[in-house]
Protein 1
Amino acid sequence: MTKDYYKILDIPEFSTSEEIKSAYRKLARRWHPDVAGSSADVISKFKEINEAYEILSNNSKKADYDKARKFYSYGTSSQKTYNKTTTNPNFKETYKEEKKSSFWDELFAQKSEVKVPKKGEDIYSDVEISVFEAMSGATKVINMLQTQICPKCGGRKFVNGAKCTCCSGKGETSTYKRFSVKIPAGIKHLSKIRLAEEGEKGLNGGRNGDLYLTIHIREPKNYKTEGLNILKTIQITPYEAVLGADVNVPTLLGNISMKISPNTRNGQKIRLSGCGIEQNNKVGDMIVTVEIQIPDNLTEEEISLYKQLRDAAIRR
C-alpha cells in the first residue's frame, strides 16, 4: 500500500465522517488550483486530497481500505525465519528479515480500480388530478427535472485539477424529461404510481432509479361527488322559481338546458340522468340543487313590485 489516506487528510484513524469532511474541506480550499496555483505539485496534491476523501467518505470503500491497511501493517513487520546451523556443534539460531508478500497491497489496488455498479437514486414527485379524472381515468403529461451525477467528472467537480466544463464544477447535471403517465380509473387519493427506471441514472452500469408519483385528487370548486353522481348547486331568481324557466347547466358532456318548473321551491333537487361519472361501463347522474337568490342592488321599480307582491299575499 503506497498511500496513507489518513496522513494525507491529517486525521486520526478513528475520525468520524464529519471530521473527515471538515478536514477535506480545509485542505481542498488550501490546495485548490485557483488558490495555490496551477503548478504540477499543487495539482498532484489536490488530486491526492480528493482521492483520499473519495475513499474515506465512502463507508464501503473505507472498510476495504482499513482492512487492507491493517494487513499491510502486519505484512511490513519483521518476520524471523529460524535456521539451524550444522557447521557449529553448538546450536545456533540465525534469522533474516522478510517482508510479507504484497498480496494485500495488490488486492486493494485492484479493488480500488474496480467500478462497482450502483443503482441510481429514486425520484419522488406529486401529480394533481380532478375527481373526474380519478373516477374515469386519464393520461397526464408531466415535465420532470432530473438530476444526475456529472458523466464527465463522476461527481468530483474537477477534471485534472481544473473545474469540470460539463457541470461547471457542480458535480451534477440537470435536464427536463417529458413523461406521459396513465392514471387508472378508480385511483385513490395519495396512491403512488411507479415508473420503473425513470429516476436518476445508475453509475458504472448500475440500473436507473425509479420515479414515484403521489396522486393528489382535487375536488372541483363548483361540484361535489357522491359515488358516480355529481352534485351541483345553481342559483335562480325568484321570478324564475315562480314562473319557471330554462337554464344552462355545465356538465361533463357540455352545457345542458335544464327546465325549472313553475313554483319551484328553494332547495329542490333536479336529477339529470346520465350526466355523472362514467366508470366500469356504469354512468352516474348529476343532481342539481336549486337555490333561490335575491338579486343585489334592486332598483326602485323592482322594490315596488316586491311590495305589490307582499300586499297581494296579505290580501289573499
Note: The mean pLDDT is 81.
Protein 2
Amino acid sequence: MTTRRRFLAISAAAVAFPGASVAEPVYTWQGVALGARATLRLTHPDARAISAQVAAEISRLEDIFSLYRPDSSLMRLNRDGVLQAPPFELLECLSLAGAVHRASDGRFDPTIQPLWMCYAEASATGVLPTQDMLTAALSRTGWGRISIGSSGILMQDGMSLTLNGIAQGYIADRVAEMLIAAGLTNILIDTGEFRAVGTHPDGKAWPVRLAAGGEVPLAARALATSAPLGTTFDEAAQVGHILDPRSGRPLQSVWREISVSAPSAALADAFSTAACLYENLEDINDLVAQSQDVRIEAAVAA
C-alpha cells in the first residue's frame, strides 16, 4: 500500500537565446521513466533532442540502480554478491550513502533490503513477519559487511542492497547536470524528490507544496520529503516502510512527514529518510548539522 507519487516531472527554460526574436514555445515530452509517468516541459531551441537525451540518461541510470530491471547493476550485485568494475555512478551513490550511514549512527542503511523483502513477502499473505523471520533477515544486513572499491563490490552471503532512499535524488542531480550542460538555467526536477537549478522563469523561487500542508520556496537547492507511513505493509496502514536497521522493525514514528533541503537531491533524500527514525527534533537537527548546508524545512508530527 502506498501514497507516494508515481510520476516524474521536469520543467526547464533558458533565460535567452542568442538571435531569437520571439519567445521559444514550450516543448512537452511524455513517456515513462523510473517506472512512472513522466513529463518534461522544456523551453529551448533543441528541446526535442534534449528531452530524448534526458529520457535516455534516466534509462541508463535505471540500468544501474533499478530493483525491477533484472540485469541492472544493483540486481546483479544482489544476485551474485559481487560486482566487478562497478559503474562510477553506483560507487558515487554508495559513497554518499555511507556518509549518511555514519552521520545517522547506522539508521540509514541500504543493506536493509532482506528486511524489506521479509515484510513485503509476509504482507503479500496478509500477515506480518515473525520474530524468527526478522532475526534471520537481520543476520543478512550490516553496512560494515560490504567491501566497496573501484575494482569491485563484495557482499557477504545472503546480503542485498536497496538504494530507494537515495537513488531517486541522485538521478535528479544527474539530470540537473545534463540540463545545465545543455544551457538550461531555470529548472525544477521532480523525481519524488525535488532539485531546483536557478529560479522559476519569473525570477522567484519555485513554490514546492508539501503533502502535509505548507510550501517551501526552492531556488538552487534540493528538497526531499519522507513519510513513515507513505508505504505500509498492513491493511490498517500502520506498519510503515522505513525500517530501523537496529531492530528490524518500523519505528512507531512520531512524524507524519519530514522535509529536508540540501545542495543535492541525493543528500536531501537520504537525510529525510534517516530523520524519520529519530524521535525528537533536537536530535534531527544534530543529524543534519553533520553535513554542510543541510537543513530541516518541515517536521510534521503524526
Note: Residues 1-6, 16-22 have pLDDT under 50 and may be disordered.
Protein 3
Amino acid sequence: MIKAVLFDLDHTLYSREETLRRAAKLLSREFRLEEGQLAEALVRNDHRLYRDDYSFAGQGAVYAAMAEEGLPLPPKERFLPAFLDALCESCTAYPFTAPVLLDCKRRGLLVGMVTNGGHALQDRKIESAGIGGYFDDMVMAADEGVLKPDPAVFRLAAERLSAAPEECVFVGDNLLDDISGAARAGMRTVWIRQERGLRDHLPKPDEEIGSIEELPALLDRIEREGGFH
C-alpha cells in the first residue's frame, strides 16, 4: 500500500527554462544586458551543460560558455552571486505542480521532498515557486550531512513521515540521484523521462512519466491494478 509520495525539487516541480528566462529579466536590468539575447544564451547553455542543481560549478560552466560566445558579461565575481539570487527569486512552478500535489493530499497520501540543497538555498526556491504549503516534510540533504543517491537520506525522509520505505513512491528526474538512490532505499520509483534516456548500468525505474502532470493518472492505474508493474 502506498502511504507517501516524495518528490525531488529541481527540474521536477518547477520549470527550469521558465525560471532561467525570468532570471534573465532580472540580470539584464542589473547589468544592462539585452534580455532576449541573455535569456536564449542561458537556456541554450544550461540545457547543454545541465547539472542537477544550481551550484556555483554549474553556474560557472554556463557563465564561461556565454562569455566564449561573446556576450558582454560583467566579471564572474559579480555575475555568479547575482545569477544565484535571480534564480532563487525567479523559481517558477509548472502550472500543474500545485494541482498534482493537492491531488496527492486528497488521496490521503503524505507528501514529502528530498533535495540535495540546503535550507538556505532551497527554501528561497520553494517560496518563490509557492509550493511549500503542500508538503508534510522536506529533507534538505545538504543540512543532514548525507546526499542523494545515498539511500540513507531516503530512509530518513520515510522515517520522518512515519512510513516504511516500501510504502513510499519517489518521483524524480535524475536516474542516479533520484531513482537509483530511492530504489536502493526500498522505495518504488517514478522517473520523469529525460532526453538522455535510460542508462544500462543504473536500475530501471518502476514507472516512467513525461512530467508530474501524468502522476495522478499513474496513481489511478496503480490503485486499480493493485501495485506497480
Note: The first strand starts at residue 4 and ends at 7.
Protein 4
Amino acid sequence: MKKILALLLAMMMVLAMAGCGSESKPAEQPAESAAPEAAPEAAPAEEEVKICLISNQASGDLGPVDAMIAGAERAEKDFGVTVKIIESLDAAGYEEDIRAMAKDGYDLILTTFPPMQEVTIAVAKDYPDVMFGAIFQTSNKEGSYDNIWSTEYLGSECTYALGSLAATITESGKIGYVSGDEAAAVCDACNGFMRGVHDTNPDAEVLFVSVNSYEDPAKAKEIAKAMIAEGVDFIQTDCSASQLGVIEAAAEAGIYVSGDVSDNSALYPDGFVSYLGIDFGQNVYLAVKYFVEGSFPGGEQGVMNLSCGTYFVDTALIDNIAANNADKADKLNAGKAVLEEVSAKIVSGEIVVESDLTAPSWDRIKAE
C-alpha cells in the first residue's frame, strides 16, 4: 500500500512541474520521413529496325546475289541491324513475298532486278510508311514513288577508266570491245570505254561487236579471233559467261584481255589485266546506311557507278603481270598510273562521263 501511495505522489509532482515556469517551447516534431521516391520508369526499349532483302535469284552464284548478301552483312556489322534474307525464285510469288514482309512490319524492304519492279511498286503503294530499295530498277525514272529508292547501274565511268588503261598499254593501237547485247546500259558502257580510249590516245581505234548472247563462249571466241586477226591486242568484255571464249582466244594469241564482273585471272595469269568490277553489295549497304541515318532518298532515281563504289577496277592484276613479265613492266606500270589518275579525277568530278545510250560507234566518238 505504501508503495502505491508513493507512486501516486511521484506522478502528481511530475504533473505540477510541467505547469510551472516560463512557457515551454513546443516540442520539435520529428521531421516527416520523406516518401520513398518512385522508381524511374524504364525507358521504352528502342524498337528493332526490321530490314529484309528479297532476291529473285538464288544465292551461291559467286556474283550479284552473294555480293548483296555480303553487303547486308557489312551493314549489320556497321549499323547494328539485322537483315533478313529471302529468296523468291518463282515469279508468281514475288508480290506475295514482298507483301508478306510489309504486312509483318518490316521498315525497309530491298528487292532485286527488273523482274521485281512492278510488284515492288504495287506493294509500295499499299504500304506508304514502308521504305523500299529497288535494286537495279528504274521505278522513279518512269514514275515517282515517295517510299521507293530505285537504282540503275551505269558502268560508263568504270569503262572510261578501263579505256584509258587499254589506250596506254596497247602496242598496235587497235582495241576490241565484245558485248553480250546492245541494250541501253551496255551501249552506255561501251561508249564510255571508247571515250576513255579516245581521250587518252586519239590515234587508237576501237572495234565493237556484240555476241548477242551472254552464254555463248564459242561464238565470242570466234569474234575475238577475228578481231585479233585485224591486229587487236587488247579486248574489253561485257558479256558475262561469253567472256570465257574471249579469254581463251586472248590467251592463245598472247594479247591482253579485260573481263567483266569477276576476276578470271586464273584462266590467263599473264594477260588477264583487269575486269569491270561490280559490287552489288554496295547498293544494299548504302540503302541500309541511308535508312539508319534518316536520309533514305525515297522518290529518287539513284545511279550506281564508280564514284559511289559500286564499280571498281582491281589494279593488283596489273601488278601481278608486271612482276612476272619484266619486258612488259614499264608499259603496264604506266597504264596503271593513268588508270588510277583517271579514276581519281572521275570520283572528284574533274572528269565527267556523260551517259550515252546510243549504238556504239568509234567514228562518231572520234568525230565529236
Note: The longest strand covers residues 272-278.
